[in-house]
Fold each of these.
Amino acid sequence: MVIVVIDEVSVTIERDADIVTARQKGRELAATIGFSSTDQTVIALAISEIARNIVTYALRGKVFLSRTEEGGRRGVLVIAEDEGPGIADIELAMRDGYSTSRSLGVGLPGTKRIMDEFQVESSMGRGTTVRMKKWLR
Amino acid sequence: MSVPILKQADVLIASIQAALSDRDLVELRDHFADQIGRHRSLGVVIDLTALDVLDSFATRTLESIANAARLRGANTVVVGIQPDVAFSMVQLGLSLDGIATALDLEDGLAELAKITKQRGHRRDR
């Protein structure tokens, strides 16, 4: 299968204001791909949640935003990468209501729910990468 | 960007004009707690009409603004949450538990007047 990734934008995440920049750029990209305004908001919200994870847990990282095509489908690909402490137990982190900070614990599981594809890879002491996609319907 | 807080009779009104960073939200929370005491306000209206996204942090901060305001004797009404923002919050599993909401500023002020009256709290001025 041919996977095409184009128009990559990257946003460095190191302070809370960068979260706003990342989600705004994500919304702009989603709009150019043709997502409805509701889906643009859903994508912006997902980006906000995973970018916040970087600020909260890793302090510094990057969010990559791109247009993706696969088997005739078009969509948006979001990758969030950090070199933070990593997630000790991904299964636990993906559980609703679980949080090691004082957040609501909806971040990762909620984000997975609102995107079409969602993967987390993490290794202790080396960092975490979240890859998520939403397809145009 | 800091959010101006307007005073109208017994009510404080904060109208969010652009996307808010976490710091802006925390600053808003702190300003409210201070201003409620200074103006002896009985109500707080937060207008989110211009807000692009309400994420888990923003939701939590709004809840703490409302809780702190209640402990200081003031009721909070959140107004102007846009349809797309509301829909995305529901999908993510976010709600504003225990906070009164209204469609717009006008309805919010009416709702606040109703709550304040119910609590027999209105001061004669």
Amino acid sequence: MNLVPVSYYLVLSAILFGLGVIAFIFKRNIIAIFMSIELMLNAVNLAFVAFARQWNELDGLVFVLFVIVVAAAEVAVGLAIVITIAHNRRSLNVEDVNLLKF
Amino acid sequence: MFILDHLWIILALPLLGAALNGLLGWRWPKWAVNAVGIGSVSLSFLSVAELIREFLALNPAQIPYFERYFNWISAGSFRVDFALEVDQLSIVMLFVVTFVSLLVHVYSIGYMAQEGGYARFFSYLNLFVFFMLTLVLAANLVLLFVGWEGVGLSSYLLIGFWFLKKSATDAGKKAFITTRIGDFGFTVGILLAFWTFQSVDFGTIFNQLAARPAEGATSIGALTAMALLLFAGAVGKSAQLPLYVWLPDAMEGPTPVSALIHAATMVTAGVYMVARMHPLYSRAPLAMFVVALVGAVTAFYSATIGVLQTDIKKVLAYSTVSQLGYMFLACGVGAYAAGIFHLMTHAFFKGLLFLAAGSVIHSLSGEQDMRKMGGLRKRIPITYWTMLLATIAIAGIPGFSGFFSKDKILAAAGDGPYRNLWFWLLGLVAAGITSFYMFRLIFLTFFGKARYNEKKVHVHESPKSMAVPLIVLAACSVGGGWFAAPHIVGGTDYFEAFLDPVFASYPVEPLASGQASLPVGGNESAGTALDPQAELLHAVTGPPVIAAIIGLLLAWWFYIRRPEAAKRAMEAMRGLYTLVYNKYYVDEIYAALIVRPLLWISTSVLWHVVDEKLIDGTVNGVADAARHAGARLRELQSGNARSYASWVVLGAVGFTILLLGLWMVR
Amino acid sequence: MSLPFILFFVCAGLAILGAVLLIVSREPIHSALSLILVMVALAILYLTLGAEFIAAVQVIVYAGAIMVLFVFVIMLLNAGVEERTNWSQMAKYAGLPLAVVLLLEIAQWFWRSPTSARAVNGTPEAHPTHALSVLLFRQYVFPFEATSILILIAILGALVLAKRQE
């Protein structure tokens, strides 16, 4: 009933992932970078769902579920860290978090 | 056959003495150091005496008596054992070395009594004896070389004994380096011997030589090359032209050292080596000619220098060089036994001369310049009489030991199978000059008015420890010649007969020489059978004796009778005088031609360029490169998360390409 | 051009638009809202792929909880306009090309990936959610429980980290 070939979804997933990488590289706000990570995870989720449709298996969907749950946990902890950094460095620019330089 | 079967004892005793005195002696009282030092050498001497007794009981087939202890080097086909052997030649050398060493050790107790480093001195002396005995007893070339180098080391240590004095350390270095040049030739000679004979053992080499004929007199084959190279080592070690320059400087060392090492034993190692390798030399006529030439020229040349020296020890040093020349002359004309005999008599009278000179210096509290001596005859009679006896011996006055040995050499030079008129002439003139400068020494030192400050210097005779060795050696200088006395006085030439089995072995046809024979001495000429009376007359009035007496008379004239004549002669020959007085400027020539360029190369080239720029530059350069690379790489750690993210993406791209490639290939 | 295709391209367009807006926005709050757009578009796409439960979870959890958390934090920190600092040479020059290359590579890889016959023509599940839950609680029960512990730890971690130092 779905006439759209699965490969279209996969290509979309690839494009979204690439855009997420671009965002990760070019944004300077820490929170924005975090969001780009979420974008990448979403792209991967799309790929999993597409593959689940392709092979007619439901394991892909289970995976997606776990990805979402883990992403939630990660965001919780990650944003807590971001808040700490924001208080310490008084800036949300990722380039100000550079204490590990040589 | 206790000692014969345990030859190593003779070596081990002085080595033990050296170790004990060297490691522990600095804490011991003097009598303990003496006991160890003298005790080890005297035990060694007694062992040699016992060895002689046992040796004489052997039957000829057992000689050379060979003892192999262990294998030292084994590298492919190159095999060197620690092996000792004894034959008649070894016996003579052992006797000379241990006997004179013992006397010198006893003498040193008195001479070095006030010096610092007492135990060190005896340790070094014992060490020297050990190495010299190793050299003499060695049964192969490499072990001989070990002894050779060892005596060189001991000589260096002893010349520079007063190491805080720059002239002494310089002299030690000069000795070591100059002999090194000769030793290089020696080493190449050993290698050539191994290449030719596949062995360095004397027995094996001589057996192979026996099957070989003599080489031509004008070509340089392997045997001649070997003989010349080994002789190069002897030129260095035995201070012949052109490597003699170290010996006069070696007088910086204490006088007992000069007596033992630079007169009686170490410098004679070269002569021993040539005599030991006589089968080789007999088959290399060109080499023999070179040996005789160097010997004769050195004998004459060095005697001329000795005429004008003012330091009493330097006169004796040049005299030693000259007498060594005689020994090489003897070997070069095939009279090996005569050369060894002169070695023995020279050890006696030259050792005595040095010890007596030490006694003179000691009595004048350190004065060595003969111009500041004089009139000591009555003050130090023992020293005077023993020194006079030694001088008569070295001058070659008949009846004394030097006469017999020198006469035999000149007779062989003039009338032997390898006779050569020029060598004989050089030797004769040198004999006259020898007599002259030796009596000059006696007259300047012991006769005339005292030229030193009699109030300041208290002249005293030497203690018994110094006087007794003098007397013993004097007795040997007088009587030591008689057992080589030739037939004319009714004695059998025991010495030559004793050594005959050694030198008559491995015979080879001597090449016919075109020289006419000269009627000299008459002892050696095989054909002329004069009746004993005429022979005696010949011996007593032969040219060498006449030359000796002329020398004596000239010395008496110039230094006793008419001292102002000496000054006039000097004025007349100003140029020649200056040349000879400055030892022909040889040291200066060597310094300019060899030493300074070498130092310049070492400093400017090797040090500044090679060491500093090349080697240090490379090493430092590598370090600098590492440091710079590190500095650049360090900048990757920028701490910037975006930069890290970009690098991660780069990695991901690379990885993806890889996987893609693999997938597509599949 | 049938309905499925139109739907696909619209949603795909919206998703890409949202992603581009995320990159381009200067204020983080705008980026957050763009991300929500992307997620909603993806949820619709999940529906077209027959994963209803996942679509619901996406909207409820992802867009409804996680993004709300993002918005709260942005408001808490008063994140303003983003500065344009340029301290990373590597990011400035090599970042874009590399990212594009990566994108293209993955895209073309996916394009070439084999499709199976039964994918397009296969009969879908009648009750996919029921089947999903069976799978989840039977085969994947252990990861399920582990994940719940993970959430607990995350809560604790967030509490500890975000606590203001007294």
Amino acid sequence: MSMDAVFRALADPARRRLLDSLHGRNGQTLGELCEDHDMTRQAVTKHLAILEEANLVATQRRGREKLHFINPVPLNAIAERWIRKFQQRHLSALSALKKSLEKDRKGERDE
Amino acid sequence: MSNSPKSSFLYVTYIRTTPERLWSALTTTEFAQQYWLSAKPQAEWKVGGAWKITFPDGRVADTGEITEFEPPKRLAIRWRNEFMAEFKAEGWSLCTMEIEPAAGGAVKLTVSHSMDREGSKFIGAVSNGWPQILSNLKSLLETGAIVVPLPADFDPEKKFRKQLG
């Protein structure tokens, strides 16, 4: 389970959207995931296989259904390796600043 | 989906070890304490045995009962939080741990933690803690050390409270 596979899997916006969807509601079937995304069933299946290969998605059989779960363990490993050591506290302050500035600008545009 | 628990998380990690060593790491208090952020899981390790997690000063964090015990394959715990009133009020959760041989001399550990209740705050909160505990467990078994050493003044209750929101 290499970190390369995790980064490759995360490099695709469609796969990140699938992860967001599972984060919103964990344990979805293929059919449910297809409903929320503007992709063919084959494309969703292919993306899920890549996410599963990278261990970002884990599946569980329940009766005849296969449920998909976001697996937060590899994301935690990335956070440990690449984020925490660069002072997460400062980063979250910057990220809050960016969010608040962008919100202000959005407000201006909306007016 | 109708028969599935409403709040559910699945955690999967691959560890270069044997099923027996991993099983022993999950069911030996002294070892578990090293990766459980210094909290202490202890139990009468058999079906029906009482189970609990305590803080170093002896206060109880969680309690429960072993509902499945099949060394070195499957462990299930009926689990309730005790130290946060709003989580305790949500009632019982179920945690299962499954060990399977995987390719390349590794074993696959699947931890599932669920509660039959929509939008459980407890299940959401522990989803911050499990990945770190499992990273520590993996690292401890593979290298003999945990990923992030705890500072001398580490207070697990504070840490859990923060994670539990």
